[in-house]
Amino acid sequence: MKENLFSSLWNTAVTLLLGWFTVHFTLTVIDWALIDAVWHGESADACPRDRGACWAFVTARWQQIIYGQYPGALLWRVHTAFALALVLPFAFR
Fold first, then answer.
1. What is the DSSP string of 30-51?
2. Membrane-crossing residues (predicted)?
């Protein structure tokens, strides 16, 4: 690993720069997605624009995000298809 990442001044600089970028990006995403996020609310109106992720909107619209405009009375078909897709590959071993 030392030969690949720190064998020259250029490799060391690139390694440190990419390491800093990775840490900075990860901390920024964690801050946006978890720390500054709005967790409770009924709609997107509960989320101010300068805050983090709006999980209130996601939880309020979860069924629409997952199933789209599929009729609620027929969701059992979707669940059955997913269950069969998970179970059948293991049924015929």
1. HIIIIIS-B---SSGGGS-TTS
2. 12-35, 74-92
